[in-house]
Every structure is written in C-alpha cells, then in structure tokens.
Amino acid sequence: PLVTTREMFKKAYEGGYAIGAFNVNNMEIVQGITEAAKEENAPLILQVSAGARKYAKHTYLTHLVQAALEDTDLPIALHLDHGADFEICKSCIDGGFTSVMIDGSHHSFKDNIELTKRVVDYAHSKGVVVEGELGQLAGIEDDVNVSAENASYTQPEQVEEFVKSTGVDSLAIAIGTSHGAFKFKPGQKPQLRFDILKEIEERLPNFPIVLHGASSVIPKYVEIINKNGGNLADAIGIPEDMLREAAKMAVCKINIDSDLRLALTAGIREHFTAHPDHFDPRQYLTPARSYIKELVKHKLVHVLGCNGK
Ligand code: G3H
Ligand code: 13P
Ligand code: ZN
Ligand code: NA
Predict the structure, then answer these.
(1) Which of 102, 202, 239, 279 is the most buried (most CB within 10 A)?
(2) pLDDT (tens digit per residue) in 160-211
(3) Is 139 touching ligand 2 by the criterion CB < 6 Å?
(4) What's the CATH number for 6-304?
C-alpha cells in the first residue's frame, strides 16, 4: 500500500538527504518517474495539484499511482500539492492520498494556523500526514500569482508557534526559491537564504522542512526546446549545489515540477523536428518519457541523494 512520508522523512533527516516530490499529470510522467526510482531503488513522493486533478481526474491519478506501486514495490506516498482549502484536503484524504499540503501561506498567521489545524485534526484521524507553509514564494502557485516584490521569506520567529499549535508533520518555507522556469532575472546571481534555513533548523530540531519551487531548470532541456522551435529565453532555476546543501540540512522534501515539464517538452519537440511526418502519440511520447526517466535518475543520485535508501 501507499505509505505516509513519516518514515521517509525520519530516515532522510538522519541520513542528510531529501526525498523527491514529483508532480504527476499523466501516465507517461508517472512511468518515467517510477521507472527511474525503481532502477535507483529510491523512495518517492508523487504529488498532484488541484490543476492536475482537474486535468486528469482524481480517480485516474490515484489508479496510475496504484499501478506504479504494483510495478515497483517501492515506498511511495501520494500527496496533494498546494491544497487551498479544507474541502480539497478532505476530498484527497477520503480519496486515498497519504499526505496533503494545506497552503495557508497567503492568509494571516492566525488564519493560517486555524485552517492548518483543522486539516491536521481531520487528516490525523485518518492516518494521513500534513504539510503546512509559512512565507510566500515568488511566482505562480495555481491561481495565485505572487510577484518577486511581494514574496516574503519565512520568519523564523514564527515557526515554533506554527508547528506547535497546528500539529503539522512538515513545513514548507520560503528562502528564495520560486515556482516556474524563470526564478531569477538574467544577470541576477541565484541565491538562497541558508541563514534562515539554519535558524529554522535550530528552532525546530529534527523537524522535516520542504522546499517548493526547487527545479534547476536544467539547461540541457531548455536548449533542446529552443533548438527545436521553442522560445524559452532566460529560463533560470536553482543551482544544484544549493539543493544538495539544503538536502544535507533539515530539508527532507524537494518539489520538482518544472524540470519534468521541460524534459517532456524537449523530448516531444526534438522528436517532431526529426520526424515531422509522425502522428502516433506513442512515437513522440516514448522519447519524452525517456527524458523524464533520465532527468529523475539524475535528481535521485546527484541532487537528492536518496538512491538506495
Ligand atoms: O506549485 C505548482 C506546481 O508546479 C503545480 O502546478 O498548479 O500548474 O499543476 P499546476
Ligand atoms: P518548480 O516549478 O520549481 O518545479 O516547483 C514545483 C513545486 O513547488 C510544486 O509544488
Ligand atoms: Zn509548490
Ligand atoms: Na535533509
């Protein structure tokens, strides 16, 4: 059966590595990720956003993940990414997810606590774990578009009260990552606030921290896209050495979506340049799925350090 993230996070914290949380939207994405994890013998979090649920439907996604479970025999958690309210969290808890995120980060501190606690109380009564969030990332979170100026780092003084009064199992923080493929302006030096992470780690001993917006926007795939009719100028992500450093610290879950999108798109575009006459989806989705698998293997081994765990 699907597992919660409890055991994975405990081992990741102690072992100084992180679990990859990959966003899934269709069969080829699920297969590319799980084939990589199978070969690397890595625990996995597969996560689904509200947009993914709308696109593919809850039941298709849960059954795809169930198939991945049967195919791999790995510890896999199924997680709701960026739950906006109690209702969507409840629907995923009742519908077989083992972990949910309640994203109250754009509410006041008090309202965030109240909402998060309500979700935690329900989730825990069903054996499901909960991720909360403090601080706001720049970029696009579903329908909320936060500009860089309005993004605010997590305030370390708030974390103990938040965790204690909500009972959350993990905490997403904002230290300079952002969603999407354009995380820094051209010429701007990518930076993360490791000082904030360090302070949070000291205030919350042994508590798993989550990084959203943590794609590296790997240049290889951006270049393939741009060489094959795409136009992604100035796409910039989080440098891999920073993610490795975070994974050695309290960060136990690293969210990756944009890198999957880029790899998939690179595979499709490259295929169509070479074979403009093809129209069988199996022809162009095969290399696209292979690129996802190659990308995820790279992440598991060289960025997250969770291979063989
Ligand atoms: O946090 C955003 C994730 O990349 C999910 O994106 O809401 O477009 O599915 P989405
Ligand atoms: P990226 O856009 O950096 O892949 O972040 C994904 C994410 O945080 C999903 O919640
Ligand atoms: Zn996110
Ligand atoms: Na870690």
Answers:
(1) 102
(2) 999 999 999 999 999 999 999 999 998 889 999 999 999 999 999 999 999 9
(3) no
(4) 3.20.20.70
Residue 51 CA, ligand 2 centroid: distance in Å? 13
> With a 6 A CB cut-off, is 293 part of the ligand 2 pocket?
no
Residue with tokens 């904030």: 196
The ligand placed nearest to the CA atom of residue 181 is: 2
Pocket lining: 180 vs ligand 2, CB cutoff 6 Å: yes
* pLDDT tens, residue by residue, 276-307: 999 999 999 999 999 999 999 999 999 999 99
Own/partner pairs for 175-179, CB < 8 Å, 24+ apart?
A: 175/135, 175/211, 177/137, 177/211, 177/212, 177/213, 177/214, 177/238, 178/137, 178/138, 178/139, 178/148, 178/151, 178/213, 179/137, 179/138, 179/139, 179/140, 179/141, 179/212, 179/213, 179/257, 179/258
Atom of ligand 2 nearest to the CA of 177: 3
In the chain, the amino acid numbered 42 is A
- Per residue in 13-61, pLDDT (tens digit) is 999 999 999 999 999 999 999 999 999 999 999 999 999 999 999 999 9
Ligand 1 site, CB within 6 A? 23, 49, 51-52, 81-82, 141-142, 179, 257
